[in-house]
Amino acid sequence: MIPTIETDRLIIRGPDASDFGSYQRFFSDADASGLYGGPLPPNLAFRKLAADIGHWHIRGYGMWNMVERSSGKMVGSCGLVWPEGWPRSELTWWIAADARRQGFAYEGSRAVISFAYGELKWSMVETHMNDENEAARNLALKLGGQIIARETFPDEVERNIYALPQ
C-alpha cells in the first residue's frame, strides 16, 4: 500500500487510474513537459502513469500525486525514483502548468525528503537534472542541495548530483 503524506496545503497520495487526465494534460503540453520527456501522445502519458504505479510495486517507493486540499485538484507529482540502469536514485517532481510558482514543488519535496529520511531510513536523498532545467536547479538549491558529483548518465547527458539535507 502506498502511504499518504499530508502537508498544510497538500494531500500527497499514490497515483491511480483517475489521474490519467492530469498526466495527459501535463505530458501533451510541450512547454510544461519538455524537460520531462514530453510532449507525449495519450498512450505514452498512460505509460508514464503506469510506470509511476508500478515503481511502487517493484522498488517499494515511488512517485506520489499532489492534490491541493482546498480545490481537490491534482497539481503535480513528486517522489523518489530509481529507473533500471540509472546510477542513482533521485527526488523528482513535475507541476501542472496552471499550478506553477505557487510553492507546490517545494512543499511536496520537503515532505518526500522527510519521508525518505524518516520512514525509508535513507542515508542520503539526491536529485539531478539537465543543466538547462533552471527551475529544478533553483528548487534543489532552495531545498539546501549541495553538489556532490557530476556524472554522465545512460542517456549520455552529464548532470550535477545534489545531496538534499533532512
Overview of this protein structure:
The strands form 2 sheets. Strands 1-2-3-4-5 form a 5-stranded antiparallel β-sheet. Strands 6-8-7 form a 3-stranded antiparallel β-sheet. The protein has helices at residues 20-28, 30-33, 42-59, 104-118, 134-142; strands spanning 5-6, 10-13, 63-68, 74-81, 90-95, 125-129, 146-152, 158-164. A hairpin with a 5-residue loop joins strand 3 (63-68) and strand 4. It contains 5 helices and 8 strands, in the order E-E-H-H-H-E-E-E-H-E-H-E-E. The radius of gyration is 15 Å and the shape is globular. Helix 1 (20-28) crosses helix 3. The chain starts with a strand and ends with a strand. It has a single domain (5-123), classed as Gcn5-related N-acetyltransferase (GNAT) (Aminopeptidase). With 166 residues, it is α+β, with helices and mostly antiparallel strands.
